[in-house]
């Protein structure tokens, strides 16, 4: 759903330094993000309001998998990569771009995982936790709950490279701290959020030079802080597109007929109005498509003509993040317009192929 959970709250970013000993302390110049009004609605009591939030958060998508407990698996056994055989379970909303980021990472690296599709209204499947999706449950000698899409990815990437450490040992590199959002509410943030935490030897092996590592962090932050923000007003820029998005979401979502009806029409109107508020708040152009095209072309320009991916010959974490955010828009006019009016298509297709072929399998 879009905007949803972690992204909707626009948590304050803390990137850390990437050193194992580094710990970020929130300061007065840290960005104070906007908390979408729908987050407040979702935590309130009205059923119809919750339905509006649920589908109002919907990005829309073209392809779906089975809605409940679908199993993804690689062609080979990956238990040798872990200190013990681990079971990965992803609790998600299929149309959430943050969940899409985690799926893209897991699929690219060929890691087997189960999917539990969470009912966006009742959230019955995640009553056991205070966190929102995506949630990755890692079960082995110990059971660890991982939260926040960017942190989940950073932890897993660090874990796959540092084979001498367990997941619980890796988690300590990403300590939580409490900060305030723009509404004065306490939210959880993480130190070193966008950094893969490596020793000097591993850094030299994984990143050819310091610039490539910092570049990856920069664009991962850009995805969360800007790309996601620009996309929402584009999905709901008029009632026609808003309803079209909702029609796809409701038909493919886990809704009863009555719930789907209210979610579609109430949510479409709600998000249409909120998109206008977002447009003013973030000072977007009258035609918000122009801001979106500019953002996408900025990404393509940063890659340049001499590289296949931001990561060079293979996608890095920033490549996977940008792809994942665009992926959940497939089937919507916004996606078609992006492909027709920017230079991103060839890159997008290369990343898609890399993920489908699980080219990151055994890469770490």
TrEMBL record:
PROSITE patterns: GLUTAREDOXIN_2 (PS51354), GST_CTER (PS50405). Gene3D superfamilies: 1.20.1050.10, 6.20.200.30, Glutaredoxin. The keyword Lipid metabolism applies. InterPro entries: Glutaredoxin, Glutathione-S-Trfase_C-like, Glutathione-S-Trfase_C_sf, Glutathione_S-Trfase, PGES2, PGES2_C, Thioredoxin-like_sf. Keywords: Lipid metabolism. It comes from the Eukaryota. GO terms for molecular function: prostaglandin-E synthase activity. Residues 212-364 form the GST C-terminal domain. One of its GO terms (cellular component) is mitochondrion. PANTHER family: MICROSOMAL PROSTAGLANDIN E SYNTHASE-2 (PTHR12782), PROSTAGLANDIN E SYNTHASE 2 (PTHR12782:SF5). Belongs to the GST superfamily. This is GST C-terminal domain-containing protein.
């Amino acid at each position: 759903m879009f905007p949803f959970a972690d992204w909707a709250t626009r948590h304050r970013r803390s990137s850390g330094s990437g050193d194992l000993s580094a710990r970020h302390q929130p300061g007065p110049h840290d960005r104070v993000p906007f908390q979408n009004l729908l987050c407040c609605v979702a935590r309130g009591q009205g059923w119809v309001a919750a339905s509006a939030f649920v589908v109002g958060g919907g990005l829309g998508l073209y392809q779906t998998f089975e809605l409940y407990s679908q199993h993804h698996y690689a062609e080979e056994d990956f238990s040798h990569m872990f200190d013990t055989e681990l079971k990965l379970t992803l609790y998600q909303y299929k149309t959430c771009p943050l969940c899409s980021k985690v799926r893209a990472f897991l699929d690219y690296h060929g890691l087997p995982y189960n999917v539990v599709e969470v009912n966006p209204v009742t959230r019955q499947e995640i009553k056991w936790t205070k966190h929102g999706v995506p949630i990755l449950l890692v079960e082995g000698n110990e059971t660890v709950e991982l939260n926040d899409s960017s942190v989940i990815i950073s932890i897993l990437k660090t874990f796959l490279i540092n084979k001498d450490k367990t997941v619980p040992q890796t988690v300590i590199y990403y300590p939580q701290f409490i900060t305030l959002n723009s509404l004065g509410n306490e939210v959880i943030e993480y130190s070193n959020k966008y950094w893969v935490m490596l020793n000097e030897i591993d850094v030299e092996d994984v990143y050819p030079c310091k610039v490539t590592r910092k570049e990856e962090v920069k664009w991962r932050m850009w995805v969360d802080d800007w790309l996601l923000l620009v996309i929402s007003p584009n999905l709901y820029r008029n009632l026609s597109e808003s309803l079209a998005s909702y029609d796809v979401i409701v038909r493919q979502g886990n809704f009863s007929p009555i719930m789907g009806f209210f979610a579609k029409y109430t949510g479409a109107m709600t998000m249409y109005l909120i998109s206008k508020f977002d447009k003013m708040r973030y000072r977007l152009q009258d035609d918000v498509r122009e801001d979106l095209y500019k953002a996408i072309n900025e990404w393509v320009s940063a890659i340049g003509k001499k590289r296949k991916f931001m990561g060079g010959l293979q996608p890095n974490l920033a490549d996977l993040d940008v792809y994942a955010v665009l992926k959940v828009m497939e089937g919507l006019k916004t996606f078609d317009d992006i492909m027709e009016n920017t230079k991103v298509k060839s890159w997008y297709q290369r990343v898609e192929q890399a993920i489908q072929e699980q080219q990151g399998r055994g890469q770490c």
